[in-house]
Amino acid sequence: MNADASIIAVQGHSQGSGDNQGYGSVPFTTRHDQPGKRIAVPVRVEPKVFFANERTFLSWLNFAIVLGSLALGLLNFGDRTGKIAGAAFTLIAMFVMVYALMLFQWRAERIRRREAGPYDDRRGPTVLVAVLICAILINFYLRFADL
Predict the structure, then answer these.
(1) How far apart are CA 12 and CA 3, in angstroms?
(2) Which residue in 22, 112, 117, 122 could disulfide with 28, CB within 3.0 to 4.6 Å?
(3) What's the rounded Cα separation, in Å, for the pair 68 and 92?
(4) What's the predicted TM-score (pTM) here?
(5) What is the C-alpha separation between 77 and 23, in angstroms, rounded?
(6) From CA 8, how far away is CA 10, in angstroms rounded?
């Protein structure tokens, strides 16, 4: 018995159909220990993967709450330019919350289905930074145009 078999449970059933679907919703991978013998091994997902997805979601929500708090401060105590910037930051904060929820659900579904990674999103943070830079530049423009 090798190290792989000691880490995950080995099912001694042969998969004749070749579709790599196990019992229920647990997909199997197939190992060939001996020529002609197939052993179905369920893919194991560690609980830390689910928790990492949840931590990432909470981190995005933390950022959205900080941005929303800044926006509310600008809306309540700012002048005309501050209120425009506050409205822009409020919309961005709501977008971040929706984006975080969609990303969390997408990753959780892929983890539940035991699909191979990558689970990262390269475009979302880039778009967020670009939108924040635009909002800050508009705020600066409006502030210095009033002078």
Answers:
(1) 17
(2) 22
(3) 8
(4) 0.67
(5) 60
(6) 6
Q: Which whole-number Å values give the CA distances from 82 to 14, 21, 78, in the listed order?
A: 67, 57, 4
pLDDT in tens, 7-60: 333 334 444 444 444 444 555 555 555 667 777 666 677 888 899 999 999 999
Alpha helices in 20-122 (DSSP H): 47-77, 80-112
- Per DSSP, the three-state class of 15 is coil
Residue written as tokens 């990432």? 56
Amino acid letter at 81? T
- Rounded to the nearest 10°, the torsion over CA 5, 9, 13, 18 is -80
In the structure encoding, which two tokens stand for residue 23, read together? Answer: 């019992």
List, for residues 76-104, the tens digit of each pLDDT value. Answer: 998 989 999 999 999 999 999 999 999 99
What is the tally of helices (H) and strands (E) in the chain? 4, 2
- The tokens describing 119, both together, are 């689970």
